Automatic annotation (TrEMBL):
Residues 204-396 form the YrdC-like domain. The lineage of its organism: Bacteria, Pseudomonadati, Bacteroidota, Cytophagia, Cytophagales. Pathway: Protein modification; [NiFe] hydrogenase maturation. Belongs to the carbamoyltransferase HypF family. Transmembrane segments: none annotated. This is Carbamoyltransferase. It comes from the Bacteria. Coiled coil: none annotated. GO terms for biological process: protein maturation. Residues 6-92 form the Acylphosphatase-like domain. It catalyses: an acyl phosphate + H2O = a carboxylate + phosphate + H(+); C-terminal L-cysteinyl-[HypE protein] + carbamoyl phosphate + ATP + H2O = C-terminal S-carboxamide-L-cysteinyl-[HypE protein] + AMP + phosphate + diphosphate + H(+).
Length: 769
């Protein structure tokens, strides 16, 4: 018999923890090939004997039919040194100490595992930690790479003979399933009260006990994938009010966990896109429109005060599935934390216990450790254009990025992001990782979690950044940490303007950094430090020849009382309106005589000015009497969007007079405010004024696009979390312009770290030959 040549395939990307080796094994067996497959820290390697035609066929088949969860970033077939094989094997993993891999996000429980959990004849019947190669925790439990059991927090669990047999059977769904366990070698739950007294240890009884506690109006902390969730009966207003009191969260909407899609459809309109998102492996919280709030038995005024949408999710772990099937009604499920503190995730820790016991009446814990804390991700869709808007990117989505920019330097680059909605981005071996949402780094605990998550990811890849990128703001925690890391690693340090980073994030997500035509960037947010020392936030940029230039901006107005202005919409209204005669009458009642005098004095000093569109939303909301003091960031904008949406519900056409061009006043914050006040004085309905304001902002975009003769327009910044604004932009500008929004990343400051990287990459790439 003629000896067959030997071949080698190398596949890179997200190829571990997704059943890749068993897949290759089965394919090779079916093709009658002999050789081996293994995992190393630079991906999957396959070596085999075949004639050239069969080798190519096999190679193409491996790449084309890869498991659904895999993401291949590079692949190669090459001739190898001659070796003779007489069967096909899966070899043990090898580690060379320099990981080049994509780390998988945590995956929602799969349909096959759910079926087993519900099947009384199956050995995993009722087992709350059932997983397989297609589902279960990943990023949250990985201590080291490659992704093997001993490198995860599953290491202490010794598999029983049945699980071991599955693990070693190449034809089993759980072949090399690193999270494998069953009721005979279990991850164990324990239910405590908030004084750390053991309440229940029997696994099946725990489920019924918790349902009884919910029925009795108790708040139960449940250990999930990324940390603890606080839960209570969604139909019990008193329990929800108590939960809000303990969390110091008076009005910000709470998410609900539903037992099923059918139950959800009795409460809300669930479109195709929403359903796909709910059922995806990320299983995010999705915003949906309420159907008939008046007829609901849920405590909606307590869940989402004054709003017509709610955030919902479906059970994404077998534990949640078992609990929700038993309870059969939705529960409130929100991150266990107080106000802006990070999610609680370490139960062995005394401080965490103190925090949990102050938040919950009962605590359900389990002994599988969480290494990387993550909140649930939140996604919404605009009503008309159906634009996907990620509001928070965490569990299920991080740290992987769907949109890989086509070019990236080989240098290791770390970008540290901004302040309030923080994240970091790491570029390493041309792979881009964007961290989970790490919250408000003004908060000390959030700073600790941010730093720990960053160190963890650097350690996973043994990455030493050659370049560190930070915001230009000198006082952000992330700026300080970036400086410290740059010193530690001897890296180059580059500071990047906040709004240029936002713009670069949209350009990068859509691979537009090398575009030849001029592109208009519309960047509207709360505030970020501008290059002229003022606080920007209503910006138009032009991007061409890989350079950013600032074009128009909304005219400056006084920024006073620092951060207080961001949480008191009445102050933005005061800043813009107290010198307008008609506005003063509206504003006076919102302030005491002393406040009025003081604010009048300090606001005239023009020490710091802002162009923030976020503050314009605040001012209009306050003038319309919607909100004077916010309880969370963005509350005023949400209420104004609600008003405007109610206008377009009744009349879907935009009055032509609203669409008239109005240069140069289009960019005047003061004229915009004066026009709002005139409308209020004329007795125009709130909803119509709110709608007009939204349209007017889009008209300003059209104006800027005309001035700079830009056909392509990128919109970013936290203001574009507003789905109505996105829809109006698409409706008014969509025919003549190509519009881009953030796609995989949130439009808010969570994208700053990625934007900083793109900003840097554009010049690094331009400089390359
Ligand atoms: Zn599964
Ligand atoms: Zn077992």
């Amino acid at each position: 018999m003629k000896k067959l040549p030997t071949w080698h395939i190398h596949i890179q990307g997200l190829v571990q923890g997704v059943g890749f080796r068993p897949y290759v094994y089965q394919l090779a067996r079916r093709a009658g090939l002999c050789g081996w497959v293994n995992n190393t820290d630079d991906g999957v390697h396959v070596e085999f004997n075949a004639d050239p035609a069969a080798a190519t066929r096999f190679y193409e088949a491996v790449v084309a039919g890869a498991p659904a969860l895999a993401r291949i970033t590079a692949h190669r077939l090459a001739a190898a040194a001659a070796a003779g094989y007489d069967d096909f094997r899966i070899l043990a993993s090898e580690s060379g100490g320099n990981p080049v891999l994509l780390v998988s996000p945590d995956l929602a429980v799969c349909a096959a595992c759910l079926e087993e959990v519900h099947d009384p004849r199956n050995r995993r019947y009722g087992y709350a930690f059932t997983t397989c190669t297609q589902c279960g925790p990943r990023y949250s439990i990985i201590r080291q790479l490659p992704y093997d059991r001993e490198n995860t927090t599953m290491a202490p669990f010794v598999m029983c003979p049945a699980c071991t047999a599955e693990y070693h059977d190449p034809l089993n769904r759980r072949h090399f399933s690193q999270t494998n366990s069953c009721p005979r070698c279990p991850v164990r739950m324990t239910l405590f009260d908030n004084r750390e007294q053991l309440i229940e240890a029997d696994q099946a009884s725990i489920i019924t006990r918790i349902c009884a506690l919910w029925t009795a109006g108790k708040i139960v902390a449940l250990k999930g994938i990324g940390g603890y969730l606080l839960t209570c009966d969604a139909a019990n207003p008193a329990a929800i009010q108590e939960l809000r009191r303990r969390k110091h969260r008076p009005r910000k909407p709470l998410a609900l966990l539903f037992p099923s899609v059918a139950r959800l459809q009795r409460e809300a309109t669930v479109g195709e896109a929403e359903l796909r998102e709910l059922r995806s492996v990320a299983a995010s919280i999705v915003l949906v429109a309420l159907l008939a709030p008046a007829q609901s038995r849920l405590a909606l005024p307590e869940i989402a005060p004054r709003l017509s949408t709610i955030g919902v999710m479906l059970p994404y772990t077998p534990l949640f599935e078992l609990l929700l099937q038993a309870f059969n009604e939705p529960i409130v499920a929100t991150s266990a934390n107080a106000s802006s503190a990070p999610i609680v995730y370490q139960d062995a820790d005394a401080a965490a216990w103190r925090e949990l016991s102050a938040l919950a009446d009962y605590v359900l814990t389990h002994n599988r450790e969480i290494l990387v804390p993550q909140d649930d991700s939140v996604v919404s869709f605009s009503v008309h254009a159906r634009q996907r808007i990620v509001l928070r990117r965490a569990r299920g989505l991080a740290p992987l990025l769907d949109s890989r920019p086509a070019f990236a330097p080989q240098t290791t680059v770390l970008a540290t992001g901004a302040l309030l909605k923080s994240s970091f981005t790491l570029l390493h071996h041309a792979n881009t990782y964007v961290s989970q949402s790490l919250g408000n780094t003004d908060n000390y605990d959030a700073q600790q979690v941010y730093a720990a998550s960053l160190r963890h990811l650097l350690a996973l890849f043994q990455a030493r950044p050659a370049v560190v990128l930070t915001d230009q703001h000198p006082d952000y925690f992330t700026t300080h940490l970036g400086q410290q890391l740059a010193r530690e690693f001897g890296s180059q340090l580059v500071r990047i303007q906040h709004h240029e980073a936002h713009f670069a994030a949209v350009l990068g997500e859509h691979d537009l950094l090398a575009a030849a035509e001029p592109i208009l960037g519309v960047v509207w947010d709360g505030t970020g430090l501008g290059s002229d020392g003022q606080m920007w936030g209503g910006e138009f940029f032009v991007y061409q020849h890989r350079q950013f230039s600032r074009g128009q901006h909304f005219s400056y107005f006084d920024l006073f009382l620092g951060d207080k202005m961001a949480i008191e919409p009445r102050l933005a209204a005061f800043s813009l309106g107290h010198q307008l005669d008609d506005a003063a009458a509206l504003l006076r009642p919102k302030f005491s005589a002393a406040e009025w005098r003081n604010y009048g004095r300090i606001s005239g000093k023009k020490s710091i000015q802002t162009s923030s569109v976020g503050r314009l939303f605040d001012a209009v909301a306050s003038l319309l009497g919607l909100l004077d003091k916010a309880s969370f960031e963005g509350e005023a904008a949400m209420l104004l969007e609600e008003q405007a949406l109610s206008y377009f519900k009744d009349s879907s056409t935009i009055p032509l007079s609203w669409l008239e061009q109005q240069a140069p006043a289009a960019f005047s914050s003061q004229s915009l405010m004066a026009a709002v006040v005139t409308r209020i004085a004329a007795g125009t309905e709130k909803a119509a004024i709110a709608a007009w304001f939204h349209v007017r902002l889009v008209v300003a975009i059209r104006q800027a696009a005309a001035i700079h003769q830009c056909h392509t327009v990128c919109c970013g910044g936290g203001v574009f979390q507003n789905g109505l604004l996105v829809d109006l932009a698409v409706k008014i500008l969509g025919e003549r312009h190509r519009l881009y929004f953030n796609q995989s990343l949130p439009p808010n400051d969570e994208n700053i770290s990625f934007g900083q990287l793109q900003w840097f990459a554009r010049t690094a790439t331009a400089a390359a030959p």
